[in-house]
Amino acid sequence: MPYVYLALAIVGELVGTAFLKYSEGFTKLVPSLITILAYGICFFLFSKALLNINLSIAYATWCGLGVVAASLLSVFIFKESLNAVGVVGIVFVLVGVVLLNLFSSSH
Known about the structure:
It is a single chain. With about 110 residues, the chain is mainly alpha-helical. It has one domain (about 1-105). Helices cover about 80% and strands about 0% of the residues. It has 4 helices and no strands. The longest helix has 22 residues, at about 55-75.
């Protein structure tokens, strides 16, 4: 269950981040409220995940997968560009998260 909480926290972060962009600097009410709610849910779920997952593993996974997913959101939803160096960076982040989860003795 802790990894379900972590996955849902990542989803909450992505929803919050997407609506943060839509909020246009918190000048639009509905996207701003969704941003605040999504980040609140995100941190609540992340705190639940931390009850059973070490901070080093949980935070690296949360940040790494969040960065990768946010990059993909920016390309596919917001039509922003990503160059070859960015793609290589995303691959490195994914490899780092996988290695940390597979080989860390901190579980």
